[in-house]
Amino acid sequence: MVLAIVADIVQLAVFPLFVAGAESPVDDVLDFGVAGVLTWLLGWHWEFAPSFLGKLVPGVDLVPLWTLAVANVYRKAKPHAAASAAHAANAATHHP
Fold it and tell me: CB 3.0-4.6 Å disulfide test: which of 69, 87, 92, 95 passes with 47?
């Protein structure tokens, strides 16, 4: 989550360098790097595709799409992790 927040802050705080949207090679390199690292850390999630493609549209870059994507991945993963933990605890109590 920290990486996504930092990437969005860099793109917003250094706005003059990234104002060109799809025309800015520095912005594209940052987005490719963030997409690669987030995929490596969290695995592939469809939430990353709109975040990456949205960065190519000028003006949409003002929305913190990486942060929103990671928050959505976390929101979806939290119930799954809780269900997995409950299943493991249930299996441990049924097998002496």
Answer: 69
